[in-house]
Design goal:
With about 230 residues, this protein is α/β, with parallel strands linked by helices. The chain has 8 helices and 8 strands, in the order βαβαβαβαββαβαβαα. The chain is globular, with a radius of gyration of 16 Å.
Length: about 230
């Protein structure tokens, strides 16, 4: 995967759940680089979303890497379920995990990219001890738990100190990403932009109609700055 260009990861939380397979195939054809899957357990965050069975079925219908964000109270317990289901990237919130270093080692040992997630109120220094076993950091630019929130400005100030500590660290941004802030984030050296409503909210028809791919392609190209 080429990290010299901004990668776009459509968030399936914003897709139409009644025609999810068509939504996935449409964004894949429209140029998406990854699929972002938010896993919420109703405890760490007040919402319930995708389980490992759904991830396994998603894996069957796409060639795109699956980027699984665990918003759960027991990431070490559930991470193996999602890795077995086909996750290619797995991230979790280090504040909730008593042994984050060990969990990152386990994820990497499975041949999966390992990352941690920083909430808007989490200091970037939280990840410093984990850098030797860290492939990427996911910076939340909204409060975790729900899609469609507004971008919290200032969170991107964490990018520079993180890359100073580890220049080859991949930086992913999730929350309120849109055409209004995408180019600023790219200039700040963000590698991956997660986008939900700014992609899936742009179609003028249903996911089964031919014009939806053009809508998604235009949204993805706009985020990249084309």
């Amino acid at each position: 995967m080429n990290y010299t260009k901004p990668l776009i990861a459509p968030s399936l939380l914003a897709a139409n759940p009644l025609c999810l397979m068509d939504e996935i195939r449409t964004v894949e054809a429209a140029g998406a680089d990854l699929l972002h899957i938010d896993v919420m357990d109703g405890h760490y965050v007040p919402n319930l979303t995708f389980g490992p069975h759904m991830v396994k079925e998603i894996k069957r219908v796409t060639a795109l890497p699956l980027d699984v964000h665990l918003m759960v109270t027991e990431p070490a317990r559930v991470a193996p379920w999602f890795i077995d289901a086909g996750a290619d990237w797995v991230s979790f919130h280090p504040e909730i995990e008593p042994h984050p270093y060990r969990l990152l080692q386990y994820i990497q040992s499975c041949g999966v990219k390992a990352g941690v997630v920083l909430n808007p109120g989490s200091h970037w220094q939280l990840v410093e001890p984990l850098l030797p076993v860290l492939d990427f950091v996911l910076l939340m630019t909204v409060n975790p738990g729900f899609g469609g929130q507004s971008f919290i400005s200032g969170v991107d100030s964490k990018i520079a100190p993180l890359l100073l500590l580890k220049p080859n660290l991949l930086i992913e941004i999730d929350g309120g990403v849109s055409a209004k802030n995408a180019q600023h984030l790219i200039k700040q050296n963000a590698h991956i932009l997660v986008a939900g409503s700014s992609i899936f909210g742009q179609k003028t028809g249903t996911a089964l109609e031919s014009n939806s791919m053009a809508d998604y392609r235009q949204a993805i190209d706009t985020l990249r700055g084309k």
